[in-house]
Amino acid sequence: MKKQVILCVDDEKIVLSSLIQELEANFGDKYVYEAAETANEANEVIEEYENNSEYKVVLVICDWLMPNIKGDEFLIQLYQTYPHIKTIVLTGQANPEAIEQMQKYANISACVRKPWQVQNLIQIIEQTLSIVPET
């Protein structure tokens, strides 16, 4: 069985650090956790894992407001290239139009508002990952 990877994408290091800590505390070593501060860095991480037969990226948790490319644009591109990767948007600033675009063109699983409630986020992640087939 491939090791499953959760990738967190946010331009704020403190958010990434908190998110990874919460994931590790709730899921332990069930998943491999990665962080990226930009969409370009996220693409590199995804490509590296997707080209490795031992790993499978199963979830990307992504901020909406980031430099260079907003989360909706990144997630739409991600879905076009890797439709099997589930996505959750974590945002404090996404407008309704951007959320609608992501639901329509990026097939996001959920949109969680910052600051998030840990148990709510964990529950959403569990629900999202419960539909990911293990390989």
Per CATH, the class reads Alpha Beta
SSE string, helices as H and strands as E = EHEHEHEHEH
Query: Termini distance?
Result: 5 Å
Quaternary assembly: single chain
Helix/strand-derived category reads: alpha/beta
The mean pLDDT is 93
Largest sheet: 5 strands, parallel
Walk me through what this model shows.
- With 135 residues, the chain is an alpha/beta fold.
- It has a single domain, classed as Rossmann fold, CATH 3.40.50.2300.
- The protein is 44% helix and 23% strand.
- The chain has helices at residues 13-27, 39-50, 71-81, 96-105, 118-129; strands at residues 3-9, 32-36, 55-63, 86-91, 110-113.
- Helix 3 (71-81) runs parallel beside helix 4.
- The protein is globular and about 40 Å long.
- The model has no long low-confidence stretch (mean pLDDT 93).
Give a quick set of tags describing it.
single chain, 135 residues, alpha/beta, Rossmann fold, 5 helices, 23% strand, globular
Question: How does the SSE layout of this entry go?
Answer:
Blueprint: E1 3-9, H1 13-27, E2 32-36, H2 39-50, E3 55-63, H3 71-81, E4 86-91, H4 96-105, E5 110-113, H5 118-129
Parallel strand pairs: 1-2, 1-3, 3-4, 4-5
Helix pairs in contact: 3-4
Question: Summarize this, please?
Answer:
The chain has 135 residues and is α/β, with parallel strands linked by helices. The protein has helices spanning 13-27, 39-50, 71-81, 96-105, 118-129; strands spanning 3-9, 32-36, 55-63, 86-91, 110-113.
